Amino acid sequence: MWALKNIMNNCRRATFLTEKKIAGKITTIERIQLNFHLAACPLCRIYLQQSVLINEAFVSFQHTSFTLDDAFKKKLIEKIELEIKKNNFLL
Amino acid sequence: MQDETDKQDVVHNLHLHPLSWVEKYADYLFGFAMSRTRDENTAKDLVQDTFLAALQKIDEFKGNSKEKTWLTAILKNKIADFYRKRSGNGLTVAGTAGELSDFFDRASGHWTGKNYPRAFGLETSNPLMMKELGNVLNDCLTKLPGLWFSVFSMKHMDDLASEMICKELKLTNANFWVIMHRTKTNLRACLEKNWN
Question: What is the four-CA torsion angle of A38, A19, B176, B33, rounded to 10 degrees?
């Protein structure tokens, strides 16, 4: 029981376990500890929600479409042409 | 001279078209690099380095993968280098930088009063709001120590196993979780502070 008593007030530990839970790396005992804490702690319940949201926002960024500006592209092409000439590739 | 001829053959036989790379793949590679570095200039440099490196090892192209796959693999290596370099900037695991704070009471571990998490008050179903949240998050990410950013990004963008990340960045498993935790508590606080 000591473990549960220790987690009761310990939001640092609870948020740490929250990260392990979200990553799917939480052990059974840790899950029991975390659920015990969350049942009594509205602050850490907010944290859990927001932590998941942050992961989603971070990953969804990759679906933004990106375009390089034309000037940069032009420079890139010139560099590639130069490299091709230097190496005498036959294209 | 033999070597030159070989290279010419490779280019010819495997249908590599370096002159069309920029048109076909530059934007895609840029987006790939942007989502993993969150920095425009870094991402641009990485795209350029990728093309130039690809030309250098054009005779390694086996033709059993597509041009795009091959270029992306080269870019991935460049990004791994970037993560390693950023991580080595003399920063400790704990990241002692002044503005990064501990949010919990030293003795009890409870949230300290001014750090109580508050609801962001946003509608997750609203795409515009989520986009704005993403922008604020990007600003917050730039304030993280390089090592933390690298760990966070490798974990989430490429879904790498923690063992892989530890090996790559020379971390212990315990340190890995400390970083994941501190990164998230700092990002959360930063978002709350800058989200109106």
Answer: -160
